Amino acid sequence: MIVATAFVLNDSNSEDISYIDNNPKNCSVSNLKWNTGFIGEEWKDIKGYEGFYQVSSLGRVRSCGKNSKGGRRSSLREEVKFAN
Fold first, then answer.
1. pLDDT tens profile 42-70
2. What gap in Å lies between CA 54 and CA 60, rounded to an integer?
3. C-alpha closest to that of 74 among 51, 55, 54
4. What angle do CA 18, 68, 2 make, to 5 degrees?
5. On the CB side of 21, how many CA atoms lie within 13 Å of its CA?
6. Any idea of the CA torsion for 47, 40, 77, 51, to the nearest 10 degrees?
7. Does residue 38 come out as left (phi exceeding 0), alpha (psi in the -120 to 50 range) or beta?
8. Most CB atoms closer than 10 Å: which of 11, 13, 15, 72?
9. What b/e sequence results for 50-83 when a residue is b if at least 16 CB atoms lie within 10 Å of its CB, and e otherwise?
10. Strand duo 32-34 + 43-45: pairing
């Protein structure tokens, strides 16, 4: 993430990066890109997990945050998982 923040243009203000060759050990600038999502994709909270997980109209799932031990909300970097 540090390499992408410093060297890869982020026009979409995305907070999620991808590895072009799908190898997270290859952090070279030429292998990183910012994810932009999909046109028309809508996100909704998952019942019972509101504020923690969302599902998209394209079947993708993302985490939104977590609670710390003291019950205070802390943010996580958004992580999107693709449905198989």
1. 889 999 999 888 888 888 888 876 544 45
2. 8
3. 51
4. 30
5. 9
6. -20
7. beta
8. 15
9. eeeebbbeeebbbebeeeeeeeeeeeeeeeeeee
10. unpaired
